Task: inverse folding
């Protein structure tokens, strides 16, 4: 008799033993999909092992085989297993993250549609050279990417290039095809014809794949290179379970398949800086061809009293600089950290603000659409004529978003062409290629710096470094904390100053990269039930002494309500993710409550 160990795409650890029907014994392989009866439901399951013994006395038989060939090869099975162990999810959930939606739902495919081009693409592939990860720092990173890609293609090996947005994917694909003369494939989750693209990639001996975060699981043969551009971007961290980061998965896959990993950005992350300090990563610095701009930080606390009293959106210094640039027919970029016209809409009479009914956070007024929007769940509603709480007829608008800034600029500089002479944007402007401005002004940066987030300064520094690359002339930053090491490092054009100071702060506090942060997210529809479950879990974990895990705090989520669910969070610090994961899986099972969902986010961003 033959028995199959299977895992399912459910938050339940396995594997589970099932009996293989006699007529399928020669056809079933590890990596194949089957249908099984699990808790009285027909479920798609993945075969991870076959053997002739089982400890289960009363064993169920597999209902049917979906595949008679593996859709997951040995390296991918090993990768998903490691991912599950690191990110504290089930093996089946990790496999689900690696496959197209249609395969997860059990769609039948023919073997010739996905037959692997090279059957020798398993583990143990010899590396091309020294496999220390490489960090490429600078604006013009593409030549290095092309050089390394050309090298792996010459060795008949594949490359995966990850980008942070679709526009970058299209641009990189075009550059690779024009420069190297090879057809390049785009792959990402829920793209049109996702399964067809997945099958084509799997059939080719070696190729180049360009895509978003999920492309890290592309089923390429003979993997030799993984490139992640701008790995500091939060889009590389998955919001849903499993909460994986593409950078960590790249390191895992590179180690399993003997592939080189390259990270590239305009600034180093603290994690990469840490690896460099430990000589576990190499650095290639690309000098900028443009002059470094003059950077001026306007301390809002030291403005003249009359100016400070009015709480202006723009300091007089910034307005004078804008006027001077416009007089010379130059162009200006103003960066605001919020979209919309007003970031809060409230009643003048009762003082209550208008909030999203699903997320309980302030709705943002968008002037061009004359609507209120929630930027978390995309809820929309018309602006009410009267207050829905007290029926008063005067609604006030507070806070400055992109549209409000544009409105003020149109009033102050009526002859300037918005969108041409003066461009107003969020920090996402760093994704624009080839833009060049005579003056850049940064507004509202303190809101980002003062967030309850130990990575806040690093995120601001990375964003500002990218924005500064859009000019070679002048940058004006308005802040109430002009002495912050983030600004001082930018003024002196000395990133090491920022990195060393932030590194020292993180070490003193035992934060990442010196320790792993783990966030337990407790959610449910009943606010009181969620709060009680979170408090009970915190108390139970706190009573169990373990050297591998330290509980830091229990707080409402940020935001506390999202898409109809209430959230609480427990933050922990761990020296070893593997030990902490084993501990959590063991103790989270014991306190399971109906209607309450607990997920584990390792290394939250």
Result:
């Amino acid at each position: 008799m033959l028995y199959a160990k299977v895992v399912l795409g459910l938050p339940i650890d396995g594997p589970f033993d099932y009996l293989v029907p006699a007529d399928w014994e020669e056809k079933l392989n590890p990596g194949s999909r089957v249908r099984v009866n699990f808790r009285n439901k027909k479920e798609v399951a993945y075969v991870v092992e076959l053997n002739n013994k089982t400890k289960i006395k009363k064993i169920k038989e597999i209902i049917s085989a979906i595949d008679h060939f593996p859709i997951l090869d040995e390296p991918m099975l090993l990768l998903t297993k490691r991912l599950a162990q690191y990110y504290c999810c089930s093996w089946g959930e990790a496999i689900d993250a690696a496959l197209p939606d249609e395969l997860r739902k059990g769609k039948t495919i023919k073997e010739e549609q996905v037959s692997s081009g090279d059957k020798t693409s398993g583990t143990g592939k010899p590396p091309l050279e020294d496999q220390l990860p490489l960090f490429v720092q600078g604006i013009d990173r593409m030549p290095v990417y092309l050089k390394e890609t050309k090298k792996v293609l010459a060795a008949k090996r594949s490359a995966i290039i990850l980008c942070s947005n679709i526009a970058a994917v299209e641009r990189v694909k075009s550059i690779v095809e024009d420069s190297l003369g090879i057809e390049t494939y785009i792959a990402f989750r829920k793209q049109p014809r996702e399964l067809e693209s997945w099958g084509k990639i799997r059939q080719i001996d070696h190729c180049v794949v360009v895509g978003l975060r999920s492309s890290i699981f592309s089923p390429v043969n003979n993997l030799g290179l993984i490139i992640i551009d701008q790995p500091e971007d939060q889009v590389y961290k998955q919001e849903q379970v499993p909460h994986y980061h593409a950078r960590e998965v790249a390191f895992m896959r590179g180690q399993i398949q003997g592939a080189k990993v390259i990270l590239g950005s305009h600034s180093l992350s603290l994690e990469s800086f840490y690896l460099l300090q430990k000589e576990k990563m190499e650095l290639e610095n690309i000098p900028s061809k443009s002059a470094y701009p003059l950077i001026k930080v306007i301390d809002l606390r030291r403005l003249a009293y009359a100016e400070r009293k009015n709480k202006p959106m723009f300091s007089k210094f910034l307005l004078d600089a804008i006027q001077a640039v416009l007089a010379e027919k130059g162009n200006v970029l103003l960066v605001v950290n919020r979209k919309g016209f007003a970031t809060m809409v409230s009643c003048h009479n009762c003082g209550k603000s208008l909030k999203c009914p699903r997320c309980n956070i302030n709705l943002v007024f968008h002037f061009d659409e004359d609507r209120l929007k929630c930027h978390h769940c995309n809820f929309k509603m018309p602006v009410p004529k009267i207050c829905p709480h007290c029926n008063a007829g005067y609604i006030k608008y507070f806070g400055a978003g992109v549209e409000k800034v544009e409105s003020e600029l149109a009033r102050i500089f009526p002859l300037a062409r918005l969108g041409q002479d003066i461009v107003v944007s969020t920090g996402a402007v760093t994704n624009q290629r080839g833009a060049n401005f005579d003056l850049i002004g940064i507004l509202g940066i303190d809101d980002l710096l003062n967030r309850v987030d130990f990575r806040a300064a690093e995120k601001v520094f990375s964003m500002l470094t990218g924005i500064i690359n859009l000019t070679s002339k002048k940058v004006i930053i308005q802040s109430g904390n002009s002495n912050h090491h983030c600004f001082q490092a930018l003024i002196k054009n000395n990133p090491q100053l920022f990195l060393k100071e932030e590194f020292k702060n993180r070490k003193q506090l035992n934060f990442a990269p010196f320790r792993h942060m783990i966030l337990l997210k407790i959610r449910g529809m009943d606010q009181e039930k969620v709060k009680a479950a979170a408090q009970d879990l915190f108390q139970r974990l706190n009573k169990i002494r373990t050297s591998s895990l330290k509980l830091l705090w229990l707080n409402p989520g940020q935001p506390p309500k999202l898409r109809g669910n209430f959230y609480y969070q427990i933050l922990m610090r761990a020296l070893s993710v593997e030990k902490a994961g084993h501990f959590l899986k063991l103790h989270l099972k014991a306190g399971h409550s109906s209607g309450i969902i607990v997920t584990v986010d390792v290394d939250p961003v």
User: Anything to note?
Assistant: The chain has four domains: 2-108, 134-285, 294-338+400-506, 516-602.
